[in-house]
Please model this.
Amino acid sequence: MLLPNIDSILDNFEQFKRKHISQNREIIKSNAQYAQRQRELESRIQTLEQEKVDKEVQTLALTLEVEQLRKAMSSVRAGWMAIGRTLAQTTGLAPTFLEMLKLDESPPLPESKRIVVEHPLPQSSLYKSVAQAPYVDLPFRHRLPRKY
Model:
């Protein structure tokens, strides 16, 4: 009498075991898929974070370049305005030109932010300055001196 009961218990146990082994396989398979998906998402996050950092660095570099170009343009404008004022003074142009210069004039840069060009080579007999004042032959009352 005990034998059929043991057989049914063993049979039930085998069914229970197979059912749980099958469920465990499915759980392991889905866990592996989720782990793979998690690794893909982590990799994507790292890629996006690196792109974000690269864009921030690029933005900062471009912002710095824009600021430097603005300062350079301000210096160039100040130089042109100085040239214009000097020409207006030496040639005796009408006051309207001087008024136009004043309208376009931007405030001068502080001393520490002006562009300074240093000579890369020491002064020697082989070195000749390239920046010379241009000779201007104007038919006006005042002539600019010719310098070499």
Remarks:
- Residues 2-91 form the longest helix (90 residues).
